[in-house]
Amino acid sequence: xxxxxxxxxxxxxxxxxxxxxxxxxxxxxxxxxxxxxxxxxxxxxxxxxxxxxxxxxxxxxxxxxxxxxxxxxxxxxxxxxxxxxxxxxxxxxxxxxxxxxxxxxxxxxxxxxxxxxxxxxxxxxxxxxxxxxxxxxxxxxxxxxxxxxxxxxxxxxxxxxxxxxxxxxxxxxxxxxxxxxxxxxxxxxxxxxxxxxxxxxxxxxxxxxxxxxxxxxxxxxxxxxxxxxxxxxxxxxxxxxxxxxxxxxxxxxxxxxxxxxxxxxxxxxxxxxxxxxxxxxxxxxxxxxxxxxxxxxxxxxxxxxxxxxxxxxxxxxxxxxxxxxxxxxxxxxxxxxxxxxxxxxxxxxxxxxxxxxxxxxxxxxxxxxxxxxxxxxxxxxxxxxxxxxxxxxxx
Length: 395
Description:
Layout: H1 26-52, H2 71-77, H3 83-103, H4 109-122, H5 130-146, H6 155-172, H7 177-193, H8 203-227, E1 232-238, H9 246-255, E2 258-263, E3 266-274, H10 278-281, E4 290-294, H11 303-316, E5 326-327, H12 335-340, H13 350-353, H14 366-377
Antiparallel strand pairs: 1-3, 1-4, 2-3, 2-5
Helix pairs in contact: 1-3, 4-6, 4-8, 5-6, 5-8, 6-7, 7-8, 11-14
């Protein structure tokens, strides 16, 4: 037994000689609980501060593997003398999650702006819409030229190298456009100040004003494109092979309604997403990035309906054994399914695992998905009706 001090911090605890980790027993459990509590408090406080400043901490949204959603594990952590602190922190976390989810309404402007920013950022590499990305670069270069400012290697190179990708990435990550612009302008102003030469005392201020004007123009362009795609749609897309930012995909899953099929090399998601995401779904990675299943908001589509739809799709295609691997956010799979899904051999042909338009038919199309969606909306689960004939793939 090693008696512990009555007061102090975790670094003051007394451990056996040459032991660098926490010993088992009450002390180890307490230290683990305390560390998790401090981490939870810090992340929650950071999310609250960012929300008050107009930014959204997407990482505060719970994912399927968040331990704090597990009531059993929460009970193991919440023992005295930490129990009251745990309950207070759980309430704070649930409240900030609720506030963030309200702002991240798929039909709202914020989600649309984030989706557009992600689509523009994808144009940095050769894609069908690369000219749109270059338009953002040209706006910045023209602003520099108008203010008689120049950089090494040219303004376009400088903007494309760091400034524009960083600004777009910040907006996609939940930062407000205005805050992203302010951070960019201040950062570039400080960078300029470090390399001043005699007679250039006003240069940092000119740089800040230039980047502020550029950021404001970028914000106007992104918001204008977002306003051109109002509302939300029901879409189906890949989890890993999609060109959509993974943080945005996680947000779509958690805000929902949504469902997921992840087994073997299949990684399908169906979710309510901003209508602006249609631009990213039209990108071609291995076929289309995704399909728009319904252009309007279907009020009868909830998480369970999304789950039925994915089950219906694989069943109607002739692979009902995959239906057990369909989950909704927060539910997860049972232990046996979690262990086996990585070893499942998916016999579905490669073309059907990708998406395609009805014109070409070289993949999963809305024609395949339409009957499955109608059945799901009506509350029918086709998995129990094995006699359903799978639709023939177009040639």
